[in-house]
Amino acid sequence: MGSVIRPTMALFGEAEKGQFRKAYVLRELPQLVDALGNPPENSQGIHFAIQALLYGRELIYFRVEEEGFSSGDYLFGLKHLEKVKKLHALCMPGVGALEIMEAANPLCEKHKSVLLTSQKDLYDYLTAR
Q1: Residue 3 CB: number of other CB atoms within 10 A?
Q2: What is the pLDDT of residues 5-19, one digit of tens each?
């Protein structure tokens, strides 16, 4: 039998270990733990990653230095994602910055993908305009 095609989700978040500006393609929880370790305090990225993997998603994880504020890390990852064939969801917890959100919009439109964020981050984005 052939391999099952899993919906792909990209996620930006902090992590205990791993390289910055590198795309980690993850399919199983042990891969996540081995590559990125535990979540830092007040970080949401690893928590969203666990949920995505438990729901059978393929995950492209970009480690960022500080969730919501490391513009260079986000812009690097978004540029990398332009090469992805199909992206079902983009998750950027902690991001409310206009620059980062506006850079993500064309990618979401291209793939007709959903942007996942928190209520607080959405409020920050909407009130920054």
Answers
A1: 5
A2: 789 999 999 999 999
How does pLDDT run across 69-100, given as a tens digit for each residue? 899 999 999 999 999 999 999 999 988 788 89
**49/12 Cα distance (integer angstroms):** 9
Is pTM, for the whole model, over 0.70? Answer: yes
* Count of other CB atoms within 10 angstroms of residue 5: 8
Please count the other Cβ atoms lying within 10 Å of the Cβ belonging to residue 121.
Answer: 21
In angstroms, the Cα distances linking 62 to 35, 74, 84, 91, 126 are 11, 8, 14, 10, 25
Residue 36 is which amino acid?
A: L
